[in-house]
Design goal:
nine-stranded mixed sheet, alpha+beta, globular
Length: 225
């Protein structure tokens, strides 16, 4: 039996965000916009089950891209069983970060149903679960009520995200359009390939046209592995 993947839409926003560029190593420097992997994590925070996966398809940037530079103290040591305490004065490290502020996005993602025959080796589930409709309804119900398994965040866990379910994305796009800006965002982190051991990063060439970023499918030639 074939199933049609249903697309959902969320509006997410927050005071600050950091979608860290992996090439920057120690210092935290954010991408200009949210990455597909960070967007996927927001959907998974609301609903995740072994029977489903999320495929981000589109990102609308609703607020102008604004930056803020922050310098903060961090501890550069890890407590172990052999070390009962850490003296902050000896392990303090001062690091700077280039973060985003006042962000707001409209994110589209498909809920991909994984039939039990494809996951039977990973989990023993009954044939009664062979129905994607319950997951569609579950996500709609949870997102409309603001329910989540863990608090969604914008790149880093200290930057919590607010979210709102959008029932009619077409009308919402007309009433609240994306920013009128075109920008080549260059190579951006797409997601991690968890089929590899250890997981390997995947990238894609991100382009923003009138504030809209189209995210290619994971099996597309546009995704660089």
């Amino acid at each position: 039996m074939e199933y049609t993947d249903k697309e959902f839409c969320l509006e997410v926003w927050g005071d600050m965000a950091c979608f860290t560029r992996p090439e920057m190593k120690v210092e935290r420097v954010s991408y200009d916009v949210i990455t597909p992997s960070a967007a996927r994590a927001i959907f998974e925070a609301i609903l995740w089950k072994p029977a489903i996966s999320w495929q981000v398809t589109r990102i609308d940037v609703l607020n102008p891209i604004k930056w803020i530079s922050v310098r903060r103290n961090e501890v550069g040591a890890v407590a172990t069983s052999n070390k009962t305490c850490i003296y902050i004065e000896d392990a303090r490290q001062q690091k700077s970060g280039l973060l985003l502020k006042d962000v707001r996005y409209r994110i589209y993602a498909k809920l991909i149903f994984i039939p039990v025959r494809k996951r039977i080796e990973q989990a023993h589930e009954s044939r009664d679960d062979e129905n994607p409709m319950k997951y569609y309804q579950m996500f709609e119900r949870r997102s409309k009520r603001g329910q989540c398994f863990n608090q969604p965040y914008l790149g880093c866990r200290e930057f919590s995200a607010n979210f709102r379910y959008i029932e009619k994305p077409e009308e919402e796009a007309l009433n609240n359009p994306a920013i009128s800006q075109d920008k080549d965002l260059s190579i951006m982190l797409y997601d991690m390939d968890f089929n590899q051991n250890p997981p390997m990063p995947m990238f894609f060439r991100a382009k923003m046209n009138n504030g809209v970023i189209i995210v290619p499918p994971i099996n597309s030639e546009e995704v660089l592995k």
